Amino acid sequence: MIPPSRTGAVDPDAHFVSSEPDDPEGDLRALDRADLDAPTWVLIWRRFLRHRLAALSGLFLLTIYLALPFVGFFAPYPADLRNADRIYAPPQTLRFFHEGAFIGPFVYATTESFDTDTFQIVSTPDTSTPHPARFFARCGTPHVLLGLVETNWRVMCPPEGTEMFLLGADRLGRDVHSRILYGAQLSLTVGLIGVVVSFAIGLLLGGVAGYFRGWTDAAVSRLIEIVRSLPELPIWLALSAAIPANWSPVSVFFMISIILGVLDWPGLARAVRSKFLALRTEDYVRAAELMGASPARIIGVHMIPNFMSHLVASATLAIPGMILGETALSFLGLGLRPPAVSWGLMLNDALDLTVVEIYPWLLMPLLPVMMVVLAFSFLGDGLRDALDPYS
Amino acid sequence: MPSAPLLSVEGLAIAFGPSKAARHVVEDVSFAIRPGETLAVVGESGSGKTLTGRALLGVLPRGARVTAGRAVLRDAEGEVDLLSCSERAMQQVRGDRVAMIFQEPMSALSPLHTVGAQVLEGLFLHAPCSRAEGEARCLETFAEVGFPDPERAFAAYPFELSGGLRQRAMIAMAMVCRPSLMIADEPTTALDVTTQATVLDLIRRLQGETGMSVMLITHDLGVVANVADSVAVLRQGRLMESGSAETVLGAPGHAYTRRLLAAAPVVGDVAPCAARRDDPILTVRRLSKTYPGRNLGLGRRAAPVHAAADVNFRILRGGVLAVVGESGSGKSTVARLVLRAEAPDPGGEIRFRGRDGSDIDVGALDASGLKAFRRRAQMVFQDPFAALSPRMPVRDILTEPLRVHGVGDAASQKARAAALMRRVGLPAEHLARYPHAFSGGQRQRIAIARALALEPELLVCDEPTSALDVSVQAQVLDLLREVRADLGLSMLFISHDLAVVAALADRVAVMRRGRVVEEAPVDRLFGAPEHPYTRALLAASPEPHRRLDLRLVALGAGEPESWPDPYGYRGDAAPPLTEIRPDHFVRCAA
């Protein structure tokens, strides 16, 4: 296709006709956007994968959640194993080279002594003998895998003859590293249960408000505003303090999750309500009404599939709030109670500023909290961006 | 000796994406504009016409870039290549030598600043002058673009102006620096047809007064014929044909141009009347719909809105009644009322007589009666992109009405879906695909197929073609005509475009402000329109081979108060619909 005169300026008067053919029938049969020819979830998945950070966060979260039932297998020590000789033991370094020669991962045996001048614990490694860590070995007390198999197989076992506290020990001489792994079980599931509770309440109340409108909507909206206007922290504290002291740790854990969910539903209910209101005016919903479909069918078949993905994204973004909530409650001593292990409870040991100054490794649980919260935020953002895959 | 071009574009190419995987959306497009002339860049959606215009001003959307070409602008201030000059140089050009007006004036104007302030800002950027001088020049420009009260317009916020006035404000903003080239991107597409006529006239008049060139980007060949000196036809980013307007429109060389011209709706092709006179399928009497006024707070309310007032009509079995009107005329309200998507005001009557002789009072149906009625009356929506659920494959979309009404088993429903696909001209192998894979025209076909799934007797079409490209619009109209003939359908066809209904309807009702102002058989209405508003609509409707008659537009396009006697009225005191000739009704005082 060469324009009439390529020498100098184009002549506005020349009549140029392209030699390309015109095929109206072909236009009708061909797909306009073959790249969009897939179920929505496939399109969302493709767009989500393009969001690298979100995909990585998703993978990270998936891995740790899948590993939760097998914590006993990954942790070198049981969560409550005390070691009276090694109270507040600082982290030991995992080394690879002994006297210049590579001998694989090992630690030096360490002894702690109390320096009466500085009031500090001094740890002295005995660098004469390396104690190699054992991998995929049997050691220690047996743990129960998935509630089925009792075994003492572990991924990593401490060396024989000494301890291996890679992240230090706490005031009872318990291994912080192992406790972080065990703490993940409660800290991570509290968010899931809380979100399920808040999702159920939010979907029900938001859906009712959005579909029936009128005075139901007004009532639910006012309720949402009232719940949102409550000062969150005092209510949490009051509700948690009301949990009877003689309840088992598991009951307390469920109560805490439910409290977190009950206080969080207004956000989701609002999202559901506004989505419902928006979808009701969509032409395809109106078409379904004009087809004679019943309200239940309109909601179930035409509306819910079109906003479920939005809700999943909202819920994902709500989980970190719950994890932080549990951490805050337990940190204040009002959440889970020992002997349960959670990140918040571990941080509870660090309530005292002097403790933080002298034994900074007790703050280690902050690291997984931050990583998980950030990962959920990235994942939620990625999901939200991927929700409208048609542009 | 013709003068040298003001702007010559050569070999323009625009691509999306990184250079390795670049997707070219405009390729090797060349054209030229002489001083004082108008070039119309014509194309359907996806033709790259808007990108071409934006590339000239260096305002391409994110991800798009110019990969080749030159665009040399030669005016009194010198010569510059718009595609290769620096961003600094471009800022000097933008607004000063080349100005742009957009399709949607509401989103192009800032809602937080007065129109005057926005125009002034554009002026100060390019012409340093005192505030008083600037305001004087703005007011002068406002008067030029036809604001009845320039002072008031200067102090008004965009949302206080009507669509037509807003577009005038955009034009004033573009004109205030006296550009040598104005790029107008679909400047009238969002406007009503009578407003469009006056805005087009304004652009033409300003051009005559200031000697600027205009690059008019449009999809409407009727508009092109009325304003353009030369034409460039684009399709999928490639130049199909270019030349003087006379040649391209009079003796088109390319098959695509010929197809576009043939598809442009023209008043005059009148469909023969197929309906039997004495057998109405739908009778509507005294149909009204009043919406409560907006709540102004403190217990006050705005006056209620009469979306439809005292509407009467009959649709004969096998007939097509078109209801035509501009935005806000109440035509879509009528469509929704007829299908009981909304409850009409009490006192009206909607009577449906089925093929089996049953007589249904649609207004009084209970839930089960309404469900049964839904089988017999279906609707096609305006926007094919919103009317199909994005989560359902086409097969589910087409079988959904059958499942709702429990028609047949799964296998027969599938077979019916395939038959429907073929009926609307789409291959049945597309059944497993999702709506987003299809073009607008294909989606509208699917929507029509869905409406036909229950074998309705009455089809209500609410502007089924106005979101579609011209060539696609013609195909969809053909399809509607076919199914009407094949299935003996009766139709209520809502449209803002008189030319579209000419080809399909056998009776037309023209609505304005919730009232029918004229109703007649299609040949009578187009051949001998009586009401000034009908005449204005007809005169304003742009067609490739007819000039707009602005005198007629001005006479009838205004508010009912401005209509001449015996048609004019104030407020709710409308005169009755009078039968001036057999079967020809006009709202006028006797």
Largest interface: A-B, 47 and 72 residues
Q: Would you count the extended β strands of chain B for me?
A: 24
Shape of chain B: globular
Percent helix among the residues of chain A?
A: 40-55%
Mean pLDDT of chain B: 85
Pfam families (chain A): BPD_transp_1 (PF00528), OppC_N (PF12911)
Region (Disordered) (chain A): 1-25
Domain ABC transmembrane type-1 (chain A): 184-380
Subcellular location (chain A): Cell membrane
Topology, pairings included?
The complex is a heterodimer of chains A (391) and B (590).
Chain A: E1 16-17, H1 24-29, H2 40-50, H3 52-67, H4 71-74, E2 95-98, E3 101-115, E4 120-132, E5 134-145, E6 149-157, H5 176-212, H6 214-229, H7 232-241, H8 249-280, H9 283-291, H10 295-331, H11 343-348, H12 353-358, H13 366-386
Antiparallel strand pairs in A: 2-3, 3-4, 5-6
Chain B: E1 7-16, E2 23-33, E3 38-42, H1 49-57, E4 64-75, E5 78-81, H2 87-93, E6 98-101, H3 105-108, H4 115-126, H5 131-144, H6 150-155, H7 163-175, E7 181-185, H8 193-210, E8 213-218, H9 221-227, E9 230-235, E10 238-244, H10 245-250, H11 255-263, E11 280-291, E12 295-297, E13 300-301, E14 305-316, E15 320-324, H12 331-338, E16 349-353, E17 359-361, H13 367-376, E18 377-380, H14 394-404, H15 410-423, H16 440-452, E19 458-462, H17 470-487, E20 490-495, H18 498-502, E21 507-512, E22 515-521, H19 522-527, H20 532-540, H21 550-556, E23 577-581, E24 584-587
Parallel strand pairs in B: 3-8, 3-9, 6-7, 7-8, 15-20, 15-21, 18-19, 19-20
Antiparallel strand pairs in B: 1-2, 1-4, 4-5, 9-10, 11-14, 11-16, 12-13, 16-17, 21-22, 22-24, 23-24
Helix pairs in contact in B: 4-5, 4-7, 5-7, 7-8, 8-20, 11-17, 14-15, 14-16, 15-16, 16-17, 20-21
